[in-house]
Amino acid sequence: MRRRRVGVLFGGVSSEHEISLLSARSVMQVMDREMYLIVPIGITKEGEWLTQGDPMNTLVGKAEEDRKAVKT
């Protein structure tokens, strides 16, 4: 059986950016990888689209950096 390619879009310029990351991660974890080829597509808070490498880890790392900058 041929897998269907599914894009999962997350992040963005919204104030709900971090919630979007959590939701997308949850969705991707429960998707059947034998049925679907998951294509993660991240959007930074500045509106830059990330399609190469690991967009989720890139955005999670940026979110952690932002939280640390606010605390200092």
Which properties best describe this structure?
elongated, 3 strands, alpha+beta, 72 residues, 43% helix, three-stranded mixed sheet, 2 helices
Give the biggest sheet: 3 strands, mixed
Count every beta strand, where a strand is a DSSP E run of 2 or more residues.
Answer: 3
Structural class: alpha+beta
Calculate Rg over CA atoms. Answer: 13 Å
Alpha plus pi helix count: 2
Explain the overall architecture:
By secondary structure, the chain is an alpha+beta fold. Helix content is 43%, strand content 25%. A three-stranded mixed sheet has the order 1-2-3, covered by helices on one side. The protein is elongated. The N and C termini lie far apart (52 Å). The model has no long low-confidence stretch (mean pLDDT 90).
